[in-house]
Amino acid sequence: xxxxxxxxxxxxxxxxxxxxxxxxxxxxxxxxxxxxxxxxxxxxxxxxxxxxxxxxxxxxxxxxxxxxxxxxxxxxxxxxxxxxxxxxxxxxxxxxxxxxxxxxxxxxxxxxxxxxxxxxxxxxxxxxxxxxxxxxxxxxxxxxxxxxxxxxxxxxxxxxxxxxxxxxxxxxxxxxxxxxxxxxxxxxxxxxxxxxxxxxxxxxxxxxxxxxxxxxxxxxxxxxxxxxxxxxxxxxxxxxxxxxxxxxxxxxxxxxxxxxxxxxxxxxxxxxxxxxxxxxxxxxxx
Amino acid sequence: xxxxxxxxxxxxxxxxxxxxxxxxxxxxxxxxxxxxxxxxxxxxxxxxxxxxxxxxxxxxxxxxxxxxxxxxxxxxxxxxxxxxxxxxxxxxxxxxxxxxxxxxxxxxxxxxxxxxxxxxxxxxxxxxxxxxxxxxxxxxxxxxxxxxxxxxxxxxxxxxxxxxxxxxxxxxxxxxxxxxxxxxxxxxxxxxxxxxxxxxxxxxxxxxxxxxxxxxxxxxxxxxxxxxxxxxxxxxxxxxxxxxxxxxxxxxxxxxxxxxxxxxxxxxxxx
Lengths: 286, 271
Description:
The complex is a heterodimer of chains A (about 290) and B (about 270). Helix content of chain A is about 35%, strand content about 30%. With about 290 residues, chain A is of the alpha/beta class. Chain A folds into two domains: about 5-215, Rossmann fold (3-Layer(aba) Sandwich); about 215-280, Alpha-Beta Plaits, CATH 3.30.70. In chain A, the strands form three sheets. In chain A, strands 6-7-8-4-9-10 form a six-stranded mixed β-sheet, with helices on both faces. In chain A, strands 1, 2, 3 and 5 form a four-stranded antiparallel β-sheet that branches. Chain B is an all-alpha fold and about 270 residues long. Chain B has one domain. Chain B has twelve helices and no strands. Chains A and B meet through helix 3 of A and helix 1 and helix 6 of B.
């Protein structure tokens, strides 16, 4: 495990912003940290980076206590938008960051290349578009080739093209074996990119598994006439109004059975809960 | 060392650093030399200064005193603004978050900021000395005075200048960390450096204990040290304490301001 937390809790007064969260991120995976705004994602991540001290519970990042130099030097992060000096160029901002991480200029150029910012590296940060700022943030996170990349809402505020660019970038990093912890409230983004997901709601981790497991088994929807006859013919089917739901993957065999029994088959399609439906179910958000 | 390099790179390339240093150099030249020169050559009101005092204030051998006398109030205010902006702006820009997740310990990150600010302040004092010396040499040459280069007393004055500058830097850093922003820290700092201590001195003429207190406040201590090493004739320069006592108070303020700021930075959550 690259990240583990055990009953990690942060309270502000009586309010638990993060409440006994126990999660684990495995090496080489893209872990989606999913939750509505204000669910506790950023506070959890801040605790993993040592920016916020937990009230109770514990965490380990790459076998180290969060926030220690040994842990931080192995982690690259982008938390709630990039934090750079507006009057410096993108390249100079990375040089400043590189000094702090103890890496040389070659790393700066490599990181700029990786996020496709070489041509704009000499421009002042304040003149960057939001997408360029986010990419510079990822470049800073990549300095020193960290073992773990923590990206907190990296597509926030981006236009659709920028979001697609960012997703491509994360996919490319994942393809190179980079472990990524990606926090987001955008379900499509997480569904597209992530191997495993942790869902947080009101400070509590309500689920942690693969996207597939979260969505559950595939159910076949069958619309047929007469539906009652089809219901009798297909064992284990459940009738919902004028359709049947069947936990069965061999659609061909089912259709053959119905047709041989002189049942008109009008529609057969897989019915699967989307991650969005699962998410709303778990978080109570709508 | 990486933290100092990082902070120095960003402070060196920050326009605000050079604007503030430039403003200070213009001020020190204007009030230290231009006005005195004009007063000496036909001015009708010489602020009760005799011709000999004006000449003495502008002679190259007294450049050390010229540097130190500006720092207790106006120079100090500029240094305080620089330090408060350097630290406070990081909260608004989100650069503290980037800094503290980069790798160094919080103490090292803070030491980097303090070290880089220290270097910038040394540059400011050195530039003030060089510019003042240049102006003094020009005036002395134009006026045909006999002059010599500054002696050992200039070293003492420059040491005092650096201590005063360190105190104002520490004060600015402290305010930047406490207020977590540039606007409030600069506002409070300027209010203290230029208004509050002067008001207290006014009250002090009515209340003895307040008068005693004003002598050892940050600006009062700075003014007393400047006065003890020969700085005179500028706002904020005092002659109520010995140089050693004033210097000890300033060292105390540096320790308290820097210590408290570092402790806060290390212990406080960055949310």
